[in-house]
Write a structure and sequence with these properties.
2 domains; 16 strands; 6-stranded mixed beta sheet; 20 helices; 6-stranded antiparallel beta sheet; about 15% strand
Length: about 650
């Protein structure tokens, strides 16, 4: 597998399934990488880094902060999301390049979970996703085994929690993240600083789990900042980085002798990991001396260790393997190009599935999983159960929504309840439409933004359709309830003369279409911050082009007409205005001299620009906007 990207090229050299792997057979899970380099706006992050990771061994990538540890790990795992100005070059190869998604697992530093799911429910959902061919009993058995291995049996019925609600501890959360990935029976495990933020006991417990996985034949690669002496002794191999350069790569037991050869002797009763990190770190106060010390270590590695390591001896001078070369095997090249670097992982796995199909007989992993996505029906049921539990258990948010809905509707009644003029009724209509849209939009954006890291981690297991359907079935009834409640109270408190049922229905459709629009914005935005920043201004554009005022709708240039046609605000205002004008019109308003102004319905409809509009037509427009947003969301999320 070869990676080169600037903006962006990703080349994969996929070996055919020459092993003819069937259930029970094993493929070597070793990895090799060479000439990995990375820069950001010209600043060096990694410089010509190479190495090997073998199955049955635990490799730790270590170094001071800013040494490039996480960047290297993400490159090896294929999950790096490059930023503007970042250039990455190098080669990663291994027999598993053409195998299944389940052969590799990546555990990040801050994996997120749904706060209101219990530990057992989180693991059970992960088992259903990663073992699509298994029965519920088999998935439950796998979860029970994982709880025992990870030491989470006591917390199986505890909710995961988040920063707002109390849940499991940090160490338990790290083990839960690892457990979710292990349910797929991976052969290669990447873990980014699995002990950071944990006390010594929790860190040792986490490393014991990783050590046992390596002993069972997995290839385990981790980054670790400052391990204890007990954790240090659990490591098999060490890759030390300083300023993006390799200071040492080899067996842990040979690390200290290498330092001693240059006069850096580890004092007695000193943590070896702490010692080597002190030696390769650069203190700004003594930068020159520290840099010379690190340079000497780098030169010694290049002179003695580097020539003997096959990972540093590529036949390509620029670090790019010749086409068709994968760890000594002949393989056809697969090349994918694109500009959305955040989707590199999905591209990688898609190409690996192509290689599997070309190789002949499909691979199978223990437990009945063959790496395919779940069927739409099963994925929908699994995701629906989770979304329903999350929605039902979030009692605080639901309670706040209920109180806010009643208070806002009551405020409308206080301000507009005693006024009967058409101008006041139109103000109620417009403000009701905007209020309903904004509340639904922000709720949807916040939910989608909060779920993005979780969905990004899970999307290789299911398509966009089951996720979309589960969100609609689980969340739309609650949105409809709160919008309908607001519409009903507002209609009664403000003494609206139009049909109450139509008023409520328009509020419901307004909320549903705005919620669908929020899901669309959240899915296509490059980051959560962009989604939250772009959603409200986009809705205000719909307000500007679609709202109806006492003097009618504003005149807009022809090129803005398409925005008006897709504005849910337009159809909400049209439907509610026509519905209100279907009742008796008492007065238009008060004139400049205090006189009561009278107006006919026909003249009022003409003034507002509502000739030819109807309640049914506005509802159809809202429904078109609603399903249009869902359709675009589905097409952009596939």
């Amino acid at each position: 597998m070869v990676l080169i990207w600037h903006v962006i090229t990703w080349c994969l050299f996929i070996a055919p399934n020459v092993h003819g792997r069937i259930e029970g057979e094993r493929i070597d899970a070793s990895l090799s990488w060479s000439s990995i380099s990375s820069t950001m706006h010209g600043r060096r992050i990694l410089a010509d880094v190479g190495g090997d990771a073998f199955e049955g061994r635990l490799l730790a990538i270590m170094g001071p902060s800013g040494a490039g540890k996480t960047t290297l790990l993400e490159i090896l795992a294929g999950v790096l999301e490059t930023k503007n100005g970042q250039v990455v070059r190098g080669c990663v190869s291994g027999p598993l390049a053409s195998s299944l998604d389940h052969n590799a697992a990546f555990v990040g530093q801050n994996d997120q979970f749904h706060a209101h799911q219990t530990v057992e429910e989180t693991l059970l959902l992960a088992a259903n996703l990663r073992l699509p061919g298994s029965t519920r009993a088999h998935c439950q058995a796998a979860v029970d085994k994982s709880l025992i291995i990870l030491g989470l049996t006591h917390a199986r019925h505890t909710r995961v929690g988040n920063e707002h609600s109390r849940g499991i501890s940090g160490g338990e959360r790290r083990r839960l993240a690892l457990g979710c990935e292990l349910l797929g029976n991976p052969r290669v495990i990447f873990a980014d600083e699995p002990t950071s933020g944990l006390d010594a006991f929790q860190a040792q417990t986490m490393m014991t789990v990783l050590r046992s996985l390596a002993s069972e034949g997995c290839t385990v690669i981790i980054t670790i900042h400052q391990p204890s002496s007990k954790v240090w002794r659990m490591l098999d191999d060490v890759l030390l980085l300083s300023g993006g350069r390799t200071v040492y790569f080899g067996q842990r037991v040979a690390c200290l002798p290498n330092f001693e050869a240059l006069g850096h002797i580890c004092p007695h009763e000193t943590n070896p990991a702490e010692f080597v990190l002190d030696v390769i770190s650069v203190d700004p106060k003594t930068e020159k001396a520290c840099s010379q010390r690190v340079q000497a270590l780098v030169m010694r590695f290049n002179e003695i260790f580097r020539p003997s390591s096959p990972a540093f001896n590529s036949s390509s001078q620029d670090g790019i393997l010749p086409q068709g070369h994968v760890q000594g095997q002949v393989a056809p090249a697969r090349c994918v190009q694109g500009g959305l670097v955040g989707k590199v992982l999905g591209v990688w796995r898609k190409c690996r599935r192509i290689g599997q199909r070309e190789g002949g007989k499909a691979d199978r992993t223990e437990g009945g999983s063959n790496g395919r996505k779940l069927t739409t029906r099963r994925a929908f049921l699994v995701l629906l159960g989770r979304t329903l539990r999350e929605t039902r258990r979030n009692t605080f948010a639901n309670g706040v929504r209920l109180v806010a809905t009643v208070l806002l509707a009551g405020m409308f009644g206080v301000v507009f309840g005693g006024k009967q003029s058409v101008v006041d009724k139109i103000a109620v209509v417009v403000m009701t439409t905007i209020n309903t849209s904004m509340i639904a939009l922000m709720r949807s954006l916040i939910n989608v933004v909060g779920e993005r890291p979780i969905i990004a981690r899970e999307r290789r297991f299911y398509g966009a359709l089951p996720y979309l359907l589960s969100k609609i079935v689980a969340e739309a009834p609650l949105d409809a309830f709160f919008a309908g409640l607001f519409g009903y109270i507002t209609h009664k408190q403000c003494h609206m003369t139009g049909n109450c049922k139509s008023f409520v229905m328009h509020c419901v459709l307004e909320a549903l279409s705005s919620s669908a629009f929020g899901q669309l914005v959240g899915s296509v935005s490059p980051s959560p911050a962009v989604a939250l920043a772009a959603g409200p201004p986009m809705m205000l554009i719909f307000v500007i082009v679609g709202a109806v005022g006492p003097s009618g709708r504003p005149t807009i240039p022809p090129w803005l007409q398409p925005l008006r046609d897709i504005s849910m605000i337009r159809y909400g205002c049209e439907g509610l205005c026509v519905n209100e004008l279907s009742g008796p019109v008492a007065e238009y308003g008060v004139g400049t001299k205090g006189q009561i102004l009278k107006v006919t319905k026909a003249a009022l409809m003409r003034q507002l620009g509502l000739n030819g509009c109807s309640v049914e037509g506005a509802m159809k427009g809202q429904i078109c906007v609603l399903f249009g947003c869902y359709a675009v969301f589905h097409s952009t999320s596939r």
